[in-house]
Amino acid sequence: MLDAPDARELADFYLRLLPGWEVRPGEDGPDWVHIRPPDGGTGLSFQTEPAYGPPVWPSGPGRQQMMIHLDLEVDDLERETARAVAEGARLAPFQPQDHVRVLLDPAGHPFCLYTESQ
């Protein structure tokens, strides 16, 4: 479950980022959205939270800490980073590893794209 100022907007971003994923029908109300992969595996859920405050990357004392982040394996790190940015992500200023790109989704949640280390 990822909180956001607008659950539908954030779910739409992840639907663009994760080709083939779809909205899972549900009766949870207008402030919730669930998406799932085409094979039916583990999905993601989003909840509208009016008081949401984005985490800070990298974390620091007295700053909003991230509670979770997604790691998504990709074949071509540069191409998929550019695609994520084109879909609405922002490249984080701090990049700790060569084979990982830390990005921030439209609600400010950090997530990582990575390739297997060489």
Automatic annotation (TrEMBL):
CDD domains: VOC. PROSITE patterns: VOC. This is VOC family protein. Residues 1-118 form the VOC domain. SUPFAM superfamilies: Glyoxalase/Bleomycin resistance protein/Dihydroxybiphenyl dioxygenase. Pfam families: Glyoxalase_6.
